[in-house]
Recover the amino acids of this structure.
């Protein structure tokens, strides 16, 4: 029906003329002085796009035989009558019904496509059919014709607007472009409004009805027009859609009432349009654009619920050429890929590529595509053109030189000193940022990034002549965008300490912590550097409260950083520094990590950095192993070796390896070089020649007769020389004076230097060195003890360098006051006292000779000299009470104390001829550390040969009465169990019976040892076994001592 309506006057054709331009108008329209249409031109604005008024003169040109088409404004050279339409118009005249001659055919049957009368509507043929009033039919036809003309004008307007935008639009104008950000208000429907109608009446009535939509003042109300359309036709798809778009233009209007009183929202109108036409892509798109977040759901008329992303996908499914749906789907995707309705997987970059195919001149699209590919990636557009990231940014700039973002992005990926744009301009990185600022003076990122490339005290001149420093740029960045998290983070770097403050351009003053906290509040989920920098500002146990009320300490902040990005080694290193060796921290993903686990993770992230292997080695125990992420098991020693392989020029690595090697052990590096512990010390001193500790430690493993030659030294150095060198490098090293003195006899002297140049030396004897050690460190308990020990007999006191005089007893008491566990000081003090003499200790207790000996044994149970001294004192008394000693709760007789001295140290030997015990003073101590090493050696020996009885007895030898040890097969054994195991392998091992004998407290039958063969032996039985196996051993160990004690 719309084909009989004139496109110019919107009335039924009166002599339809086909013009040479292709338009059909009435004959009267050729002579009309009006515009294309009073109705259309009065409307003025349609669907959010401003119409461009015809710029040609609407009058007919006063030239012979030359006129202007009122529809397209083209010159018309010829025209003729369109007979086909003329016949169609003639057929649309009032007729009588063929069946009911007295009634007119004023109704239309939509099923039969014919005109009928009111009587036909109720007969059996048309009773169940859809029959419409021809008034409604004409209105829809006329409405469609009006929409088509307006759409044509809108398209012309859009084309001219785009051309104008490409030439002169600023960044801000483009940024708010309706074609990108807002809902799609274009009209694209397939109308089929009863094209087979053959008759029409009441033409003037319908024309007046249309004109009622235009107020008397001539202004057009779109909302009233569309609401009136819905009132006339409840199933008008286009009317519901267009009414919804008018609501989007007035954000404050949340709902409106239709003709029937129904209150509807914008989405209700779109959903109604979808219900009438489920293939309407625009409705799905506009609903999606109206959703605030991706989690919000909308229920479609079909009952299916969809979120924002699914609605964009549905719009594309409905119209695969819907470019805006591709663009906004890409912009709203949180993941990198999306599965379309046809099961095709598209990446975000593919969606932008698809959009560019429809809009090859859209600057934004190229910029966004560049942001979604890797720096070295090359993509191919649908037109076959290949482009990398730099090409895309350059293309974006070429299409719109006033768009600031591609300048910023291009600068951020440029590694060369300059970059050439498509117009031939050569710009540096700083030039690109300056150009971005010139395009958009409120571009926060441009100021921020420019500041990052400017020196701290450099002054930069903007293209508008403004001069700014680095700090000014950061301040401007924040002023342009107070939500710029990076700006606050970078500005904080200008503050040297936590208490300094800086004033923003809005007048607010903030300190370093406040800047980081503000940065975190803006971006709490991705602001890794702000969390890290804030953590670095805090002290060990300090906490800070964020703006969301959460209280966090250093570890919490580092853990948050890992939650944001778990691939940055520096964060793990910072966290490890704040975790102790026994602590386990819990990450945000629930994983619990110890300190060594953190270092293991760091190695996985940076396997080629030596420092990580070094740190992991330092976190392990001596024989502990750790499993790396790649499955490799590695121990402390192997980690140091790996670190040395990566960096053979750091003395710390060699020192670490030295600390776990035994004195006579050698190590093979990964380069094949075999080094002893001495060699490692020499290598360390070569790398760090002024490290006094290395000279000291090397001296400690040498014997007095050992001599070494360091690289670069022409002379050999012995143990004494190394201590002298250590003192010259560190004159405050108190221990060096003591150990140097220990290498000298009482009459020796040595020249000591207190500077690295080793000049102006001082001649010192043994006692001078001990006194110097006290002067260097006044709380060195060993120095006081040594001074007392080697004080010459004629001297009753000695004067220290501070002028104070001390007697021998005062020196020992001073040693005990500094270190109450100084066992040797108690023993020597006991030796100085008479048999019945006592002395007041620093803790206020009066203690006698015997108690001092017992105290020394309790503090150091592995020194045989202490037992021998106690036993000698006990044997010298006739008093029975003095012949019993209570050590650690056990009552021990004199004989047992003597035997303990034998058992503790093998160098105490018994002289059968004299019945006396004597002591090899050169080896009177067994260091506790040596004991631990011996135990480890024995457990390894048992593991390698479990049938050698000597291994079990040697291990038992190093254990105390109540001690136990875990073998490498995880079996736990006491000292007695080890002796029993020895006897099982060698039934004649007399020493094992001897140990078992002394483990029993008394000779009663209720105390016995159960052997592995089930035999139970008490103390008497064990003694009989010893006598039976080795009579000589029995006589030496028991009879002489027994006679000696009972004299």
């Amino acid at each position: 029906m719309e084909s009989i309506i004139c496109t110019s006057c919107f009335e039924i054709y009166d002599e339809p003329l086909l013009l040479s331009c292709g338009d059909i108008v009435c004959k009267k329209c050729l002579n009309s002085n009006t515009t294309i249409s009073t109705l259309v031109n009065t409307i003025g604005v349609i669907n959010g796009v401003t119409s461009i008024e015809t710029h040609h003169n609407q009058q007919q040109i006063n030239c012979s035989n030359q006129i202007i088409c009122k529809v397209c404004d083209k010159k018309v050279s010829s025209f003729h009558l369109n007979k086909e339409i003329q016949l169609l118009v003639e057929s649309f005249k009032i007729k009588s019904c063929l069946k009911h001659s007295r009634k007119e055919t004023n109704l239309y049957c939509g099923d039969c496509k014919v005109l009928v009368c009111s009587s036909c509507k109720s007969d059996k043929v048309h009773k169940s059919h859809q029959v419409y009033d021809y008034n409604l039919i004409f209105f829809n036809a006329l409405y469609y014709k009006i929409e088509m003309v307006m759409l044509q004008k809108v398209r012309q307007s859009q084309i001219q607007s785009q051309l104008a935008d490409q030439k002169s639009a600023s960044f801000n104008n483009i940024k708010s472009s309706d074609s990108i950000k807002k809902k799609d208000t274009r009209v694209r429907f397939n109308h089929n409004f009863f094209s087979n109608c053959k008759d029409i009446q009441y033409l003037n009535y319908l024309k007046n009805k249309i004109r009622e939509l235009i107020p008397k003042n001539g202004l057009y109300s779109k909302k009233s027009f569309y609401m009136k359309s819905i009132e006339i036709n409840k199933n008008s798809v286009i009317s519901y859609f267009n009414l919804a778009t008018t609501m989007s233009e007035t954000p404050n209007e949340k709902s409106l009432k239709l003709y029937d009183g129904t209150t509807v929202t914008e989405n209700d109108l779109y959903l109604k349009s979808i219900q009438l036409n489920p293939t309407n892509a625009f409705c799905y798109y506009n609903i999606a654009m109206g959703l605030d977040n991706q989690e919000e759901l909308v229920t479609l008329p079909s009952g299916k619920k969809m979120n924002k992303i699914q609605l964009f996908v549905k719009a594309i499914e409905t119209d695969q050429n819907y470019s805006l749906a591709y663009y906004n789907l890409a912009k709203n995707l949180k993941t990198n890929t999306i599965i379309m309705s046809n099961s095709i997987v598209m990446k975000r970059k593919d969606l932008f590529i698809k959009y560019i195919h429809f809009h090859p001149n859209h600057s934004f699209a190229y910029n966004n595509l560049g942001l979604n590919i890797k720096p070295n990636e090359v993509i191919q557009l649908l037109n076959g053109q290949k482009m990398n990231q730099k090409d895309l940014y350059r293309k974006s700039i070429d299409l719109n030189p006033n768009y600031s973002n591609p300048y910023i992005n291009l600068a951020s990926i440029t590694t060369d000193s300059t970059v050439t744009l498509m117009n031939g301009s050569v710009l540096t990185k700083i030039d690109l940022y300056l150009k971005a600022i010139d395009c958009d003076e409120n571009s926060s990122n441009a100021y921020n990034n420019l500041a990052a490339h400017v020196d701290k005290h450099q002054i930069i001149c903007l293209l508008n002549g403004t001069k700014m420093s680095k700090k000014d740029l950061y301040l401007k960045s924040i002023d342009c965008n107070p939500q710029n998290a990076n700006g606050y983070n970078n500005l904080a770097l200008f503050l040297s300490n936590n208490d300094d403050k800086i004033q923003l351009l809005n007048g607010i003053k903030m300190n370093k912590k406040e800047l980081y906290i503000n940065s975190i509040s803006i971006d709490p989920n991705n602001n890794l550097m702000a969390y890290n920098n804030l953590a670095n500002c805090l002290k060990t146990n300090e906490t800070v409260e964020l703006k969301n009320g959460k209280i966090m300490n250093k570890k919490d902040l580092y853990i948050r950083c890992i939650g944001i990005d778990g691939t940055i080694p520096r964060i793990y290193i910072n966290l490890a520094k704040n975790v102790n060796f026994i602590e386990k921290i819990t990450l945000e993903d629930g994983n619990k990590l110890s300190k060594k686990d953190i270092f293991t993770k760091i190695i996985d992230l940076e396997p080629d950095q030596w420092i990580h292997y070094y740190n992991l080695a330092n976190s392990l125990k001596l024989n502990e192993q750790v499993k790396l992420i790649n499955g490799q098991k590695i121990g402390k020693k192997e980690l140091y070796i790996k670190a040395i392989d990566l960096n053979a020029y750091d003395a710390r690595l060699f020192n670490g390896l030295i600390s776990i090697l035994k004195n006579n052990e050698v190590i093979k590096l990964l380069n094949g070089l075999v080094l002893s512990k001495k060699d490692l010390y020499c290598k360390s001193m070569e790398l760090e020649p002024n490290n006094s500790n290395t000279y000291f430690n090397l001296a400690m493993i040498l014997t007095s007769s050992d001599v070494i030659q360091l690289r670069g030294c022409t002379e050999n150095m012995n143990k004494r020389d190394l201590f002298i060198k250590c003192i010259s490098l560190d004159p405050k090293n108190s221990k060096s004076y003591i150990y140097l003195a220990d290498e000298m006899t009482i009459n020796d002297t040595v020249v000591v230097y207190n500077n690295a140049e080793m000049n102006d030396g001082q001649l010192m004897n043994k006692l001078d060195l001990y006194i110097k050690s006290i002067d260097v460190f006044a709380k060195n308990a060993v120095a006081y003890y040594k001074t007392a020990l080697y004080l010459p007999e004629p001297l009753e006191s000695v004067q220290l360098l501070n002028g104070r005089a001390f007697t021998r007893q005062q020196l020992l008491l001073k040693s005990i006051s500094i270190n109450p566990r100084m066992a040797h000081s108690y023993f020597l003090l006991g030796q100085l006292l008479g048999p019945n003499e006592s002395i007041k200790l620093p803790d206020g207790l009066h203690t006698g000779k015997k108690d001092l000996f017992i105290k020394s044994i309790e503090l150091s149970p592995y020194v045989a000299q202490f037992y021998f001294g106690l036993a000698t004192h006990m044997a010298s008394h006739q008093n029975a009470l003095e012949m019993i000693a209570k050590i650690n709760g056990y009552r021990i007789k004199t004989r047992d104390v003597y035997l303990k001295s034998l058992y503790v140290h093998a160098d105490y030997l018994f002289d059968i001829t004299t019945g006396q015990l004597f002591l090899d003073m050169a080896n009177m101590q067994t260091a506790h550390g040596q004991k631990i090493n011996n135990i480890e050696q024995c457990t390894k020996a048992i593991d390698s040969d479990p049938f050698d009885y000597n291994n079990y007895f040697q291990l038992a030898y190093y254990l105390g009465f109540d001690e136990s040890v875990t073998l490498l097969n995880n079996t736990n054994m006491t000292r007695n169990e080890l002796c029993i195991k020895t006897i099982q392998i060698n039934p004649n091992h007399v020493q094992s019976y001897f140990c078992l004998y002394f483990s029993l407290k008394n000779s009663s039958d209720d105390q016995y040892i159960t052997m592995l063969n089930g035999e139970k032996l008490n103390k008497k039985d064990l003694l009989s076994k010893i006598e039976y196996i080795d009579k000589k051993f029995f006589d030496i160990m028991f009879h002489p001592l027994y006679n000696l004690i009972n004299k």
Observations:
- Residues 1-35 form one domain.
- DSSP finds 47 helices and 48 strands in the chain.
